[in-house]
């Protein structure tokens, strides 16, 4: 089993891995959000990571069934088997029906994913809609002797499982180590071992979200939902399972154990885990209280933010690191991302201005190969972006008349930049106020006209002063054969 897709290029070259039928199909399952609050930057990273994978596999010709679940039940306060359901807790505080909370924050999640240009999955199931499937798996595991009932709750017997299978195959955890590192928590005395996990929990009298079963009126364990929903929509074996690094243990380890007993094997051929967003070196997340919501990023309404940051800046910021690397938040890093994104988009805007010649001074075919090689190397987005910046240098040189492209090569370059920047990386030119944009264009037209008149009169001091003053406020003036152009840096 590959714990990470470190040889992604091998996976893509050997397409027989993904050809159970023709045309080739890929089953992709990604653990989605628990919808009890606004999405934060940590939610954006897996969404964008697997959006790139989804887009790239589709580009390569695969028919992808992408399933990303919504957790709306069973995720308890301490991420273990005790405490109140996070959504029920929110509903109690706000005096709402739990499914009102679910609907509100699911809609909010979709809104912000749309802003980040994250494509919708093929299927987005909810845990609460698959209670029957989850109870069937509980019955299966109990009947096979790998789970036990205590006081109406059902727990997976990890020690029993480890006697015939290896618990920790994905994370590298050793059960013997868990004996010494885990402690018996208050309220867990009904378990044989503290590392056993709940398949079904009996609901307390005050617990809002509950369903009838032969064990008790209760609710499914958090780990069970993904096993049930992935099997329901992708089959008992599918191609790629993704999620954040924080889910590697115990969530995905528990999924493997459940699936191995219920279905006779683990669920996925490949596992992909994106690393964390950090702030001052610490994971950014709701449980730690150090998160910044996406709305706060987009409005700038947070004490740690120096300004508002656009959705495409956030997307580009995340793509500047390979998905298995950590990304540390800072306003300086976001400023660099904003400038880099603008440079990339300005380069694309120069393409229509280039005049073709009889020969090409830039190897477009080599650029194409480098871009594919970067994506095939475990979705190495920063290397891909570096190659695209190299292309931008060539584009700017050609726009200034310092480099030549044939008509055929220029068309191919235009197609490649659109493919890799827009279609695969999902970066877009962001809408600005049309009135303000038109006004700025008109003002700059007047300024550049005055500067050109100064140049015609050989008043170099005035010409240079206008250029330098504009640069000081973030507007770069470029002189070319056909006159001056400008861009915001």
Give me some keywords for this one.
489 residues, alpha/beta, Rossmann fold, Isoleucyl-tRNA Synthetase, Domain 1, four-stranded parallel β-sheet, four-stranded antiparallel β-sheet, 17 helices, 13 strands, disordered N terminus
Fold and architecture overview:
The chain is built from 17 helices and 13 strands. By secondary structure, it is α/β, with parallel strands linked by helices. Helix 3 crosses helix 4 (98-115) and helix 13 runs antiparallel to helix 14. A four-stranded parallel beta sheet has the order 2-1-7-8, with helices on both faces. Strand 1 (25-30), helix 2 and strand 2 form a beta-alpha-beta unit. The protein has three domains: 9-274, 3-Layer(aba) Sandwich (Rossmann fold), CATH 3.40.50; 279-424, Isoleucyl-tRNA Synthetase, Domain 1; 437-488, no CATH class.
On the 0-100 scale, what is the average pLDDT? 88
Detail the poorly predicted runs.
1-10, 13-22
CATH-assigned fold name of the largest domain: Rossmann fold
Percent helix among the residues?
Answer: 40-55%
**In angstroms, what separates the terminal alpha carbons?**
46 Å
The CATH class of the largest domain is Alpha Beta
Arrangement of strands in the largest sheet: 2-1-7-8
- Secondary structure tally, helices: 17
**Main beta sheet: strand number and arrangement?**
4 strands, parallel
**Class by alpha and beta content:** alpha/beta
Broad shape: elongated
SSE string, helix = H, strand = E?
HEHEHHHEEHHEEHEHEEEHHEHHHHHHEE
Q: Superfamily at the CATH H level of the largest domain?
A: HUPs
Evaluate the radius of gyration: 27 Å
Count of strand segments: 13
Report the portion of residues in β strands. Answer: 5-15%
The assigned CATH architecture of the largest domain is 3-Layer(aba) Sandwich
Number of separate domains:
3
């Amino acid at each position: 089993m590959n714990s990470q897709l470190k040889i992604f290029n091998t996976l893509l070259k050997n397409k027989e891995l993904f050809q159970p039928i023709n045309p080739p199909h890929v089953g992709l399952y990604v653990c989605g959000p628990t919808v009890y609050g606004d999405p934060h930057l940590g939610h954006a990273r897996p969404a964008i990571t697997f959006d790139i994978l989804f887009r790239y596999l589709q580009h390569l010709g695969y028919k992808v069934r992408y399933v990303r679940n919504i957790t709306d039940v069973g995720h308890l306060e301490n991420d273990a088997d005790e405490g109140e359901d996070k959504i029920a807790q929110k509903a109690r505080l706000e005096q709402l029906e739990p499914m009102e909370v679910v609907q509100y924050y699911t809609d909010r999640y979709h809104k912000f994913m749309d802003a980040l240009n994250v494509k919708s999955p093929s299927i987005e199931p909810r845990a609460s809609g698959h209670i029957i499937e989850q109870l069937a798996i509980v019955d299966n595991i109990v009947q096979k002797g790998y789970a036990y009932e205590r006081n109406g709750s059902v727990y997976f017997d990890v020690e029993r499982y480890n006697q015939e299978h290896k618990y920790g195959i994905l994370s590298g955890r050793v059960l013997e180590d868990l004996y010494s590192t885990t402690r018996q928590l208050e309220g867990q005395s009904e378990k044989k071992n503290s590392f056993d996990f709940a398949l079904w929990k009996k609901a307390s009298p005050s617990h809002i979200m509950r369903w009838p079963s032969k064990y008790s009126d209760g609710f499914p364990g958090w780990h069970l939902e993904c096993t049930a929903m992935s099997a329901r929509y992708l089959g008992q074996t599918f191609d790629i399972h993704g999620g954040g690094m924080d889910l590697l243990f115990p969530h995905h380890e528990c999924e493997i154990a459940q699936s191995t007993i219920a279905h006779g094997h683990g669920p996925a051929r490949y596992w992909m885990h994106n690393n964390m967003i950090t702030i001052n070196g610490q994971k950014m997340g709701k449980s730690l209280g150090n998160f910044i919501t996406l709305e706060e990023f987009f409005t700038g309404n947070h004490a740690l933010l120096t300004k508002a940051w656009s959705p495409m800046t956030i997307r580009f910021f995340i793509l500047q690191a390979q998905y298995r690397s950590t990304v540390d938040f800072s306003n300086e890093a976001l400023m660099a991302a904003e400038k880099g994104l603008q440079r990339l988009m300005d380069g694309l805007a120069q393409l229509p201005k280039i005049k073709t010649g009889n020969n090409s001074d830039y190897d477009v075919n080599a650029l194409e190969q480098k871009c594919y090689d970067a994506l095939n190397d475990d979705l190495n987005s920063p290397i891909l972006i570096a190659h695209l910046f190299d292309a931008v240098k060539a584009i700017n040189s050609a726009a200034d008349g310092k480099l030549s492209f044939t008509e055929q090569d220029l068309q191919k370059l235009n197609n490649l930049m659109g493919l890799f920047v827009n279609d695969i990386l999902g970066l877009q030119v962001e809408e600005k106020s049309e009135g303000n944009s038109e006004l700025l264009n008109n003002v700059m037209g007047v300024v550049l006209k005055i500067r050109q008149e100064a140049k015609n009169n050989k008043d170099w001091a005035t010409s240079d002063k206008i250029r330098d003053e504009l640069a000081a406020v973030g507007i770069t003036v470029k002189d070319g054969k056909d006159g001056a152009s400008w861009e915001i840096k």
